[in-house]
Amino acid sequence: MPKDELLFVPLGGSGEIGMNLNLYGYDDQWLMVDMGVSFGEEGLPGVDVVMPDPTFIEERKDKLLGLVLTHAHEDHLGAVPYLWPRLKCPIYATPFAAEFLKAKLAETDFADQVPIHVIELGGRFKKGPFDIEFVTMTHSILEPNALAIRTPKGLVVHTGDWKFDPEPQIGEASDVKKLEALGDEGVMALICDSTNVFSEGKAGSEGDVAKNLSKLFAETPQGRIAVACFATNVARLQSIVEAAHENNRCVGLAGRSLNRVTEAARAVGYLTSYPNLLTDEDAMEVPKDQVLLICTGSQGEPRAAMSRIAKGDHPTVQLDPGDTVVFSAREIPGNEKSIGYIQNLLIRRGIRVITARDEPIHVSGHPGRQDLARMYQLTRPKILVPVHGETRHLCEQAALGAECQIPEQVIPHDGTVIRLSPGSAHVIGVAESGVLCLDGGRLLKRDSETIRNRNRIVWNGVMFVTVVLNQFGEMVGEPMITAPSLFDEVGDDVRLDHFAAEIGNRVDQLNDDEVLDDAAVILAIRQSLRRPVRQRLGKRPMIEVHLVRVNEQG
């Protein structure tokens, strides 16, 4: 890497929304910003979590100065418990993100090895050629930060996730004066959130949501109220609690992550004026019209509290006909079906369901077009690099930046190596990138043979064949075939007999050398089954052959 170049390399979050991981490089030294996950996607059966492949920086981990976390959302820090052992770098975060991360790491066996440095809001520190300053923003979580990264080649502003909200309910409003001061100092490049670039106007205010929730609860005097929301949206938690108290309802929490977030918030000084939040079990002892439950599961997650409540198998919480469930969260694209399933279960049981489509009870944590234009006006960058979005989001923000007269725009994708300086900003290469899948307790590449085979089995099934040959290469008995994903247990014996005959005929055709070669026999058995299985079933299953050789005694 040339010493006089400042590079930006996204390994995740550019080309998709989620699993953010960004790198800044100068003088053969690297700074990482965020390390997040995304959730299971189509074509990855059995995989709940995916994350960026860090191989590029892992190969340079002796040059990695540290990881800076902008905030505590899973798509920005959720990969730390899985990827940190591969990098073993120091971590820098403001108090809430640090506390939240410590709680996540407590479930690992290396928690005490991770050096987490707490940086106060608005704090500043140096690592190698990078001078990093936290800039307070607002978002749908406590303590979101933009980063002012000063380098020998110029000042970069990395926005993280953000919006402008004059009434954030909890925490501080965005530090507009600092952003303006950075613009006066001279911003070379703005690396900017693109999530809501298609939304006209401004992001809404949490203060308005609080007022609307209070009004809604007042109009629901009978029965229990349960509110599903994102556990990490502490401002929303506070809005719900205050609205409940205004309507003479006490509040209980249902869901492990809600308790974990609440504990982390209290540990750093938030939510301390609400010491009497109940457990879900205690909340069920309160008269129905005097209680409100905050629940996890706004996205229809099958193991979350709301899903279990809807199915009637939650160990403590029960909702009855006439009760009300409020979904105070946006539907993340891809989750519509699972959310609809839970809502339909509730409605069938006579429970009233209210969503953000029915009432103004949710606002986004990301900037609309008017907010983006204001950010450009405050920081006045020479270069715009849109991130945190699908390709269509990135291209749209680049076009908006051009409309707002930002001189240069560069559209990245995961693995793009962008030279920010010297000279005009442009792509100079491609770094190794990809996606890792959390499969049980191990990480697999998305294009690994295991994942490919699993997809094949999902769509075409699998057939297991056991063939026994004697020392002369002759079959001993009939082949044993099982195909539980292709046949019903009853009524398919004739079909299986047909396939067994195909195997016998093919093995008999092998010459003396082939029949003594395991690889040749296994290949022949697979070939003997492919066409008849495809003709009879219309499928191309994975065929697993177990070859057993025995010595028969005369």
UniProtKB/TrEMBL annotation:
From the UniProt annotation, give the residues forming the signal peptide: none
Q: Which UniProt keywords apply?
A: Cytoplasm, Exonuclease, Hydrolase, Metal-binding, Nuclease, RNA-binding, Zinc
Report which superkingdom the organism of origin falls in.
Answer: Bacteria
User: Which regions span the lipid bilayer?
Assistant: none
Q: Which intervals hold domain Metallo-beta-lactamase?
A: 18-213
Q: CDD domains this protein is in?
A: RNaseJ_MBL-fold
Entry's Gene3D superfamilies? 3.10.20.580, Metallo-hydrolase/oxidoreductase, Ribonuclease Z/Hydroxyacylglutathione hydrolase-like
Q: Name one Pfam family in it.
A: Lactamase_B
Its name, as the record gives it, is MBL fold metallo-hydrolase
